[in-house]
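Design request, tokens follow.
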């Protein structure tokens, strides 16, 4: 029997195009309905963009006190970069706006660019992000067409491997510190290649000790809630 009010941690495989808050709200509503209560604490440890899939750690009840620590954990991702095109959001949330030459890019250059991005660095977040700018979310300002400048954050890319080369599509594995934007790595990877790049797929595979292999779909968790 799962005691959601006392405290529980759920590992969810977030669906494509769902926001992290969509998942929280869906599970919270089902828990409240099952328990017949008006309020219950439910939160997530580490946001995933709507176009990303994979591991989302959800905490309920007293386990929400663990969220700050869990958010600080290292994360691992797989995904795909498209070399030679860019978008304002660095992913497919916005349309391609610029094309770059790619004829000069060799496997050796791809490897050099990959290696150059490993380590501690100052990373500028995407303007299409949840960063606060004068009390507003950066993505709200960006979507309104306003020019904004975000300050860089110190992050660490612990590992960055190219797992498949289907040029101009490059599959990757990345392990990184909290606060790292994989979309910004796409941007920086393109710059390191003397070209451009866009993140066209992203899947979180691990968050600290938690693994995607142990996660359940939203539907499976709803079934667990109904049976609890």
């Amino acid at each position: 029997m799962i005691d959601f009010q006392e405290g529980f941690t759920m590992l969810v495989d977030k669906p494509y195009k769902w926001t992290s808050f969509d998942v929280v709200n869906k599970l919270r509503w089902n828990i409240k309905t099952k328990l017949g209560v008006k309020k219950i604490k439910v939160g997530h440890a580490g946001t995933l963009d709507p176009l990303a899939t994979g591991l989302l750690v959800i905490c309920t009840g007293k386990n929400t006190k663990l969220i700050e620590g869990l958010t600080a954990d290292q994360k691992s991702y797989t995904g795909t970069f498209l070399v030679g095109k860019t978008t304002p959001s660095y992913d497919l949330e916005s349309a391609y706006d610029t094309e770059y030459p790619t004829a000069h890019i060799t496997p050796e250059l791809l490897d050099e660019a990959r290696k150059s991005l490993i380590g501690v660095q100052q990373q500028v977040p995407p303007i299409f992000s949840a960063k606060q700018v004068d009390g507003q979310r950066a993505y709200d300002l960006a979507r309104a067409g306003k020019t904004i400048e975000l300050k860089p954050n110190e992050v660490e890319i612990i590992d960055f491997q190219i797992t498949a080369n289907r040029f101009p599509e490059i599959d990757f594995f990345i392990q990184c510190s909290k606060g790292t934007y994989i979309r910004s790595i796409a941007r920086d990877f393109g710059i390191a290649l003397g070209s451009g790049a866009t993140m066209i797929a992203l899947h979180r595979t691990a968050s600290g000790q938690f693994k995607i292999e142990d996660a359940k779909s939203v539907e499976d968790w709803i079934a667990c809630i109904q049976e609890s």
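Comment from the thread starter after seeing the answer: thanks! The mean pLDDT is 92.
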